[in-house]
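Let us begin with a simple case.
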Amino acid sequence: MVLFRLFLIVALLTIGIYTGFTVAEHGFGLIPAFFGQIAVVDWQGQFNTDFMMFLLLSGLWIAWRHKFSPLGIFLAIAGGVFGGMLFLSAYLLLESYRVKGDIHALLLGWRND
């Protein structure tokens, strides 16, 4: 769990700093740039489409983990889909402490089904 948490911290810091530099240099124009490359149908568009599917899967997992509760759906959309790794690394880091390092509870949530 220590190495996993260390990875999450490194990922959070890396993507946070990189995002800060990108916003400072290019502003908040992510959406048109992201979908614009998909519309071009080139390798960058293919990568963006692949990445978008990972974001959707991340959001679906978060919603499922929270049993599709209103909070779970909010976290899924706002964080999992639009927040990407910046959100997911912070979410998993906090949840890893909340579940006291229990990897099963971290991945599955507190499920009684």
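The second case is a distinct protein. As before, the sequence precedes its structure tokens.
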Amino acid sequence: MQAYYYTPNDCDLDELPDGAFRLDDSRIAETADPKQADLFVCPVMIHHMGQMTGYGTNNLAKLKRLPYLDKHPGRHVFFNCGDTFRTALPPESLAFRCDATKQLLAVNPNTVPIAWPTKDCRIDSGGRAFEWGERRFDVSFIGWERLALCTKALDSCERSGLVCLVCDFERKDTFYGHHEKQDIANGAPERTRYLESINRSRFSLCPTSIEDGVIRYRVYEALSAGTIPVIIGDGSALPMSELIDWDRCALIIPEADVDNTDGYIREAIDCNWFGQAERQYAIDVWNNLLTSDNWFNYCTEKAIEWVKKEWAK
């Protein structure tokens, strides 16, 4: 099995941007001859292959000019790690996407959801791993309160019933990840504050911040810390669902029940649904499947399966 990787010239770019996508050369050899290729890999994230035309949309002008796309749409592999969650690709093509949603999967059935790249959050500012007994809060949320869905979930937890939840919340009006990168002096202590909160909480509130249901980075950060993410977003496409028992490592709440978020969390605590074994499972899932290092093998396996199906047609 051989793959042709589009060159910067093919992609109408001066050079490949950072984060070029590749498959395992030992299983899918690279060929410089397109005539010998079983599949064509675009190593450039698709948000670099066009121009943003609206929130989550991209016209993909450069992608549409790829020289072998018209003749072989069903043998192309694409990748995206950016906010173009309303941008569809040729439906015959295979696509690995961090921004996948259920709506996008309905349009592009060959889309494979993968996790956003996130850092290991199971440490404090001094590099020390937190202990299980240091969980002082029931639920944590430090981040952008963008949607009404998020506000309702936060309000529900803060006005919880007779047995109140112990919350560590800090509502922000911007995506603090941008602030962290742009203002290092102020961003560093904010990051420390976030790490300490997520590590000292049993649950991390993770309502989608995008109407379409794109999963927050926070889901994967929580898993790395052994904290159970509370996922609220009916349109969310959970990655690797054939390998991961998401009901074991995440509390998933329908959007219609968002006003009862506190009830779901209190019931989970009362019934001890997510004990130390489940928290360790969350860490193992992140370490063994969801880190960007694991994309390499997973995407290669999926590409091999896909090519074999194409051969069988």
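Residues 292-312 form the longest helix (21 residues). The radius of gyration is 21 Å.
Keep these points in mind for the review questions at the end of the chapter.
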